[in-house]
Specification:
alpha/beta, 6-stranded mixed beta sheet, 4-stranded antiparallel beta sheet, 10 strands, binds adenosine-5'-triphosphate, binds magnesium ion
């Protein structure tokens, strides 16, 4: 089990966002998380990368649990997760290569190891020819590919993607989904939040819907 939430309640201020929710994610799964704007999708992801603590209940991710993780351990957990955001969060003053390499410098890898890993993941996302470009010279889809490369470079056991296609056109969204599915087929679990039911249909995998502070497994009507 990669992820286990047990009776998790989370509040923002005094407002209950998620109420006593429980679910698990197993190795290799592709999980779609759907729900209206404001339902709590990003909050759920923040719980998983431990940017948010549950008010009650327990969040377990990999070898860490919310009640025992220390602040100094949080970066180690995040290094084992690949986190992807809708708005990319790339370092604008660094090249594509350096954006991806940045995540490896802190791990103490040698420059030879870093180079090999960065080139490998940039090739995997189809961007090795853009390694010297700056983020502003890339299209939205290309920027998102850089983010995926950056997420992959530490060989995460789980990818967390918060509306990774929210700012992309339908064709580019599908390309990004295909890339995430390819990564998943190689064995990495993926948890992706989205508004886009069309994409969820194409993704297959599990669907967790957040509604009225609850989370439940649903099937889509074809
Ligand atoms: N830092 C915060 N402080 C107070 N309230 C917050 C905070 N972050 C989120 N909220 C509230 O919690 C609720 C859930 O927010 P969240 O961002 O998790 O929703 P979401 O499903 O990701 O929405 P969207 O689809 O628009 O991204 C919303 O009502 C939001 O206003
Ligand atoms: Mg959100």
């Amino acid at each position: 089990m990669l992820v286990q939430l047990e009776n998790v309640t989370v509040k923002h201020d005094r407002h209950v966002i998620l109420k006593e929710i429980s679910f698990t994610v197993e190795a290799g799964e592709f999980v779609n998380v759907v729900g209206e704007s404001g339902a709590g999708k990003s909050s759920l992801l923040r719980l998983l990368y431990m940017d948010l603590k549950p008010d009650t209940g327990t969040v377990a991710v990999g070898e860490y649990t919310s009640h025992s993780i220390t602040p100094s351990e949080v970066p180690y957990l995040r290094r084992k997760l690949g986190i992807i955001f809708q708005d990319f969060k790339l370092l604008e003053d660094r090249s594509v290569y350096d954006n991806v390499a940045f995540a490896l410098h802190v791990t103490g890898a040698t420059s030879g190891e870093i180079r090999k890993k960065v080139v490998t993941v940039l090739t995997q996302v189809g961007l090795s020819h853009k390694r010297n470009a700056m983020p502003h010279q890339l299209s939205g889809g290309e920027q998102q590919r850089v983010c995926i490369a950056r997420a992959l470079v530490n060989e995460p056991f789980l990818i967390l993607a918060d509306e990774p296609t929210g700012n992309l056109d339908p064709g580019t969204s599908l390309d990004i989904l295909k890339l995430l599915l390819e990564i998943n087929h190689k064995g990495t679990a993926v948890l992706m939040t989205t508004h886009n039911y069309d994409l969820v249909r194409k993704a297959g995998g599990r669907i967790l819907q957040i509604k009225e502070r609850q989370i439940r497994e649903v099937q889509l009507k074809q």
